[in-house]
Amino acid sequence: MNRDSTDSITALSLEKGAPSYSASSVRSLFIRGKVLLKAGYTIPGMHKPAFLLSLLLLLSVAGSVCLSQESSSQASRPAQPSQSKATPTPAPESRKRRSVAEVEDAMSKGEELLFKKHDAKSSIEEFRRAIKLDPFYSQGYLLLGLAHMQLGQWTDAQWAFEEAAKVDPENAKAWLGAGSALNEQKNFADAQKALEHSLELRADSAEAHYELARSLWGLDKWQAAEPHVRSAIELNKDYAGPHALLGNIYIQRQDPQAALREFQEYLRLDPEGSLAPAVRQIVAQLKKALGQ
Question: CA angle 155-131-124, nearest 5°?
Fold first, then answer.
């Protein structure tokens, strides 16, 4: 975050007990918040892409996984180059999964590596083996995408999720994953399309609402983002990430008091989250600006 933004936020003052601030100060505060939002999304163990909390919980048949809630896609972990080429999309002549012992073996090993040993890099080879044996197995593509997300390999993750959607077009999580990967690449327009489709398939996904809000925020459509942030919070009261985004939206609305409440709620829910250090700085500056 730049010095100009820091100086602007501390320049907020109080007059007769009520907050008094210039439009430029509020705008600077908003810019600071926007930088915070875009810089803080990763998959911790995945953007945790930070991003696909529900995908992790539903797909981790090998064990329980604890994730951060920043992005349904966070990006604290640096992106790593992909080491393998994508396989061609299978022709949609049959989407029924074959019962192949080798597929089960590859998936079992991949899940153990990804969820129990937290070795996403090694798990990729197992998931690729599974989809090579059975090109119509959507869960293989989903877990492959998740592993790539944990490594910050956004384009490979996007490919895997899009393949899952081709094999199983009614899979809302495949579209959610694709949208989250596109968000990480700042391709917000295409992310918006994928995430809107995900919500058409499953309207009660907190993660999809949140990721769509991130897309709209990235497109400077914060008014359109707000209802999706609120839906994410309503659907999952313990989802920390949306509170940070809602705090930024309140700053845009020139309501620092409400913004402060949302940033504090983020810290209450996820005090060790990847956004926590930056959020604490903003909370301190907002309190100072508001005379608290």
Answer: 55
Both structure tokens of 179 = 């949208």
Two structure tokens written together for 77:
């972990």
Please name each of the domains of the chain with its CATH number: 1-39+240-292 (no CATH), 44-219 (1.25.40.10)
Integer CA distances (angstroms), 97 to 46, 135, 141, 169, 202, in order: 27, 8, 13, 15, 23
Q: Residue 100's Cα: distance from chain center in Å?
A: 33
Report the alpha-carbon distance of residue 20 to residue 15 in Å, rounded.
6
CA–CA dist 127, 133 (Å, integer): 10
What tokens were used for 105?
């073996």
Of the candidates 100, 115, 70, 83, the residue with the CA atom closest to the CA atom of residue 239: 70
| pLDDT tens digits, 116-149 | 999 999 999 999 999 999 999 999 999 999 999 9
Tell me the β-bridge partners of 42.
74
108 CA to centre of own chain:
26
Query: What span, in angstroms and rounded, lies between the C-alpha atoms of 109 and 227?
Result: 41
Instruction: State if pTM tops 0.85.
Output: no
Cα–Cα distance, 35 to 42 (Å, whole number)? 15
Nearest to 210 by CA among 47, 45, 32, 30: 47
* CA dist., res. 259 & res. 3, Å (int): 21
184's CB contacts (< 8 A; 6+ apart) are 41, 47, 49, 51, 71, 73, 75, 149, 152, 154, 157
